[in-house]
Predict the structure.
Amino acid sequence: MWDTFKTWWRTQASGTVDQAGVIAKRRAECALTGRYLLMVSMSAGIAILGLLLSSPAVVIGAMLLSPLMDPIMGVGFSLAIGDYKWLRQSVRSLAIGTGFAIMFCAVVVFMSPLQNVTSEIAARTRPNLFDLLVAIFSAIAGAYAMIRGREGTIVGVAIATALMPPLAVVGFGLATFNWTVFSGALLLFVTNLTAIALTATAMARAYGFSSSLSERGSQLQSVGMIVALVVLAVPLGLSLQTIAWETQAQRVIRDEIGTVFEGKAEDVDPKVEFATGAVQVSATVYTNELFDRAEVESNAARQLESRLGRPVSVTILQIQSSDAREAELAQLGEGREREAESLETAGVIAERLALLAGVPTDQVTVDRDNRRAMVRARPLDGANLAAYAELERRIDATEPAWDIRFEPPPLALPSIGFQEVETDVGVSHTLTSDGRKALALVEWAQRRKGLPIRLTGPADAVEDVRKALAEDGVAASSETSGTGYGTVSVVWDMD
């Protein structure tokens, strides 16, 4: 079984890779050029402004512009093949780009009147083990895309790994002398950098890229990679454990404060700070009956100290809410808050779609009643249909209550391939893995554009594709050339 897999891998997977072409392209993109530094500075500037404004849409834009992925992948591939000249070039480009980004962001923050730690900044100061896993999974996808020529996937990888925002937070910490922010963001960046580089090395070696390393050198390199990941995993695992404890403590605090009010608390809204010493709890309690403040605070602190095993300081503000009129006003206030939240969400979605589509915000159609947002994207340099579909999927995933529609430009549609499959009754033909993805992409693009499409190829293959499209409600005209199976070309039918 293992021998069969190795044979298949050598012939069907690693054996079909154009190693020279992949290495040449990766090497060219690691050069330290004026364009590279310009894109680093623009990405850093957008990132730090988005963080200061606490705007996720602007931060996503910085992720897409950042060129730091190229030298990091260069480090990984050069380690795999033992090309230390290329490694030095990649490290040099990465180090200069990183330092440039940090200093650029520090200067922007130093000159800015806004220097508060926003929620977007705070979110990048406590990396944990999950961040390492995200970086590893994303790096696998990115390295595979580069090796197999699926460049459209890199858009999603850039968003997932988020290399520039942590660097911008490092610059913020440097400018404000906040070493907690500085060190936390730096650890997140180092986590992403190390995971991407080492994963790229592992992927290149798995695909059999030619290496000048001896067997012993290769073994030492593997051990070093494992040690590096373990060294990173230990503090990140401890951080994840702390975050999990604090999340559980939040639930315990809410429950225990409600308990001391003997079931007469309608709502408990605690604010908790987990300082080095005592846990600081400041809670607002809506209750039918007012209790002695000193007594409930003392009882709550005693019970929480028993449950959490740490000193706890409790301050409770009681608000009596038995009056029906107050309840009506509270309900009305909640309705207004929900309306305001809906307006804010719609605005954020419109900003994000406009940024990623390259159009003004007023060109985004937002239907708040039906929670639907649509935009027609402008052509983006180097982006194919798969990249636009990935952008829509990622935005849609962040807003599960909304229906996000991202209409791409009329770019070239992918071809759909078939393969022969041996069965008990003979040979049949089915779509290849890439063919199934291409079919799904064609359906998505046709639904978004609403334009007719035309199929061209062998009659049997064209008919199978036409039926598959028809089952999903997509009509297509066809032109056949001969019989049998082969690749089906798909084009927009603009005649």
User: Anything to note?
Assistant: The chain has 17 helices and eleven strands. The CA atoms of residues 148 and 446 lie 26 Å apart. The chain has a mean pLDDT of 79. Residues 215-260 form the longest helix (46 residues).
